[in-house]
Amino acid sequence: MATDPVLVVHGGAWAIPDNMTEAHRQGVGNALAAGWRVLEGGGSALDAVEEAVVIMEDDETFDAGRGSFLNREGKVQLDALIMDGATLRAGGVGCVERIANPVRAARKILSESPHVYFVAEGAERFAAEHGIPLCRNEDLVIPREVQRLREYQAQPADAAKSDNDLFAPTISHDTVGAVALDCEGNLAAATSTGGTLAKAPGRLGDSSLIGCGCYADNASAAASTTGWGEPIMKLVLAKWAADRVASGSIPDWIAAEAINYLKDRLNGHGGIILLDTNGRFGIAHNTPRMAWAAKTVKQESAGIEWSR
């Protein structure tokens, strides 16, 4: 029995400034269009989320791919995960420095490796061996982020720790992600990020960890999160939300409940998109704004959602 496809994407949850809202709106809209072309043509949810995320990795507006935050050594280190709800197969990469589209490498791992996760040089070696071109790390660095890191590191240590907490919602959390339901009734999810500003080299966030920043299971739901990674990891938030959908709850309710749980338990902040096999989806965040877009066969919506 054919299913009506659904696609939901996000481009981060934080205090998106007024002068950046249009770029975010256009960015998530472009990602939605790319993923929808796949679904509209009868393609898989897995292909759809991959193509949607690639668009945002290539868009310097977001903290994924080129234009990502720099770590304290001035390098881009990227993480990504993609997961197939039909088989529970997944592919993830962490701390890669020479892959412009880490979600592509993650997809290769899912499709062509018995393993689930590769990191650093091992991930880059696997990618190169499977036809994904490597780039120089310098190719992923843009002047805006060089200046942002320089300004942050120039602050007094106590000021950096208090007034400009690295994990505060006023500092960008432009992690990107997508969840999709295809015409075969299968779910998929993908999440990609450059992590946090001035992070320690080798730091891994929630985005590329199964059940934390990304999860998909046809028996429950597909989810992608964004925000402060450490609390999201501790709560395994994407899996937590999916499990509650499996118990019969509506994704819209559970998305809001998940973000409340994040706040109440660990004072965390961020956002989540959640989709079930009935095509019902939820979007929630506790940051000032969140960039998102969604499309079904009946309607399309995209924009910057303010906190409710």
Q: Which helices and strands occur, and which strands form pairs?
A:
Elements: E1 6-14, H1 21-40, H2 45-57, E2 78-84, E3 90-96, H3 102-112, E4 117-119, H4 120-129, H5 143-153, H6 157-162, E5 176-181, E6 187-193, E7 214-216, E8 222-227, H7 229-235, H8 237-246, H9 251-266, E9 270-275, E10 281-285, E11 289-296, E12 300-306
Parallel strand pairs: 3-4
Antiparallel strand pairs: 1-5, 1-11, 2-3, 2-6, 5-6, 7-8, 8-9, 9-10, 11-12
Helix pairs in contact: 1-2, 2-3, 8-9
List keywords for this structure.
34% helix; alpha+beta; 308 residues; 4-stranded antiparallel beta sheet; Glutamine Phosphoribosylpyrophosphate, subunit 1, domain 1
Helix content: 25-40%
* Main sheet summary: 8 strands, mixed
**Quaternary organisation of the protein chains:** single chain
Q: What string, H for helix and E for strand, traces the elements in order? A: EHHEEHEHHHEEEEHHHEEEE
Integer-rounded radius of gyration: 18 Å
Discrete helix count: 9
The number of strands is 12
Low-confidence stretches: 160-164
Q: What proportion strand? A: 15-25%
CATH architecture field: 4-Layer Sandwich
Broad structural category? alpha+beta
Question: At the third CATH level, what is the topology name?
Answer: Glutamine Phosphoribosylpyrophosphate, subunit 1, domain 1
**Largest sheet: spatial strand order:** 4-3-2-6-5-1-11-12
Basic shape: globular
Indicate the CATH class.
Alpha Beta
The CATH fourth-level homologous superfamily: (Glycosyl)asparaginase
Termini Cα gap? 37 Å
What is the residue-averaged pLDDT? 92
How many structural domains? 1
